[in-house]
Amino acid sequence: MGSLTFGGLFTFVFAFALVAQSVNSELSAQYVQIEDDRGEMRSYVGLTQRETGLIQVIGNNGRTATVELADDESGGEVFIRSQGGPISANLGADSTGGDLFLYNTSGDKRASIGVSDNGAGIVELFNDNGVDSIEINATGDGGAIFVRGPAGNAAVAASVDEDGGIFTVRDSEGDAKIGLYIDGSGNGVIELNGKNVGDVAEVFPLHTRANLIPGTVVSMHGTGTGLQPAEGAYDPAVVGVISGASGLDAAMTIGSRVDGSNDLPVAMTGRAYVRVSAAGGPVHVGDLLVASDRPGLAMRADDRSRALGAVVGKALENYAPGVEEEALVLMLVMRL
Description:
Layout: E1 3-6, E2 10-13, E3 17-22, E4 30-35, E5 41-47, E6 53-58, E7 65-71, E8 76-81, E9 87-93, E10 98-103, E11 109-115, E12 121-126, E13 132-138, E14 143-148, E15 154-161, E16 164-170, E17 176-182, E18 188-192, E19 195-202, E20 217-220, E21 227-229, E22 238-241, E23 249-254, E24 266-277, E25 288-291, E26 298-300, H1 304-307, E27 311-315, E28 326-333
Parallel strand pairs: 19-23
Antiparallel strand pairs: 1-2, 3-4, 4-5, 5-6, 6-7, 7-8, 8-9, 9-10, 10-11, 11-12, 12-13, 13-14, 14-15, 15-16, 16-17, 17-18, 18-19, 19-24, 20-21, 20-22, 24-28, 25-26, 25-27, 27-28
């Protein structure tokens, strides 16, 4: 502790010692350290061994800096430590811009806010093994959120593109298994295992597998033993249409057969493609569709009285018969 007399008028007693020294080392470093009244250093202003500026605020536990302002090759940095502990927070800069890192009491990084390589903002959260588990960032189209599994692969992702929102669920290998997105026409699309889906389907017993392919109109066999291709115009035993034509698979399939099989499910609701006979004439959007004279094929319902109880769906697109004997027409599955 020191004292200073000025003009004999007053005496000022230092509560701390200010020591300014010029050290002739090989770095010719200059520094100022501030001590408390017990001689313990509490602040330090000087140069690092890299000859860059350094400021430290020392805690009351000793010579551990609780706050440190430094400079490195990329720019300024601020370190915040707990009393006697490791770094708790680090604010700095790198080649892409500013960044902030948060650490647990063991000094392990658990969260970060920074700038990605493409110049956009990014937030990352790490699990107890240090794996990047949650990532929120900005892209050229908008925001994106990734939830990662233990191995670091993206298990769930929500993002946007030029058409709208995208939601994806991936397996442990990183392969997309479930997808929801908006297509280029503004329609909502569901994908399962890489395939578009458009309806809910149910598995029925089969009387025969012959000539049963997706898009086929089916009816119950007269013995009640299972499905077969519909036979005859306005077949009253019609059940529906086999799901999956033109790659439009069922969003959900329910049920199974006694033998455990669940192929050739019947579309129960939603959209499905149906095989339409050219012999039935042109089909227009809104036309009701029923079984035709050709086994397994549909046609436009001209006779509304016969259509009651025989309708399999409503046409969602036009069809003008050409040289082909049949075509696939998108329809809304409905019963009437």
